[in-house]
Write a structure and sequence with these properties.
The complex is a heterodimer of chains A (120) and B (111). With 120 residues, chain A is mainly β. Chain A is built from no helices and eleven strands. In chain A, the strands form two sheets. In chain A, strands 2, 4, 5, 6, 9, 10 and 11 form a seven-stranded mixed sheet that branches. In chain A, β7 and β8 form a beta hairpin. The radius of gyration of chain A is 13 Å and the shape is globular. Chain B is an all-beta fold and 111 residues long. Helix content of chain B is 0%, strand content 43%. Chain B is built from no helices and nine strands. In chain B, the strands form two sheets. In chain B, strands 1, 3, 4, 7, 8 and 9 form a six-stranded mixed sheet that branches. The chains are: A mainly beta (120), B mainly beta (111).
Chain lengths: 120, 111
Amino acid sequence: QVQLVESGGGVVQPGRSLRLSCAASGFIFSSYGMHWVRQAPGKGLEWVAVIWYDGSNKYYAESVKGRFTISRDNSKNTLDLQMNGLRVEDTAVYYCARDHLDPPRTFDIWGQGTVVTVSS
Amino acid sequence: QSALTQPASVSGSPGQSITISCTGTSSDVGGYNYVSWYQRYPGKAPKLMIYDVSLRPSGVSNRFSGSKSGNTASLTISGLQAEDEADYYCTSYTSRITPRVIFGGGTKLTV
């Protein structure tokens, strides 16, 4: 079945780095745009980044621009989020989500999320 | 970019209809027919209910419908059922400055 599984979350000190991964299965990964979305404790959902189906375009929320990098490997059906210079306010559950539209603008399949805690 | 504005909560009785609003600006909701709605149960990942203002993904009940007028989009749920009790979020695409998606703050529906 169609599935997205995130991994790589954990506890990290401010200023350090973390790399999240999302493994896709059950669909033709290379045909879909992909997003990262997060939810901080007690807060609403926040879009983080998007990557086009072929990796040709990448866009970021202002809150993470210059610190986070989204990437994908269509040969391995994986999506990554490299997070550098982490801040306490980056603490959140991070979800990867598939987008079946062009331009990417919606999330039709979601993973279950991976928890990132930034704390000293 | 500010979040889209949704009411914090709405309520209704079984069998009734309710509408949840999502207000943005001419740069997002009003500028594109790219509004989506998501249902979310506590501790679960969101589920896509409506995309591109009024389109339903396969498998979503036709009790859920979407519309838009100006800078405000709406999700209507008819024939309310107990299982509809959940949080609902709207999103809109915007390309002002760079392409991105913005979320509403979410609405708690109590049935």
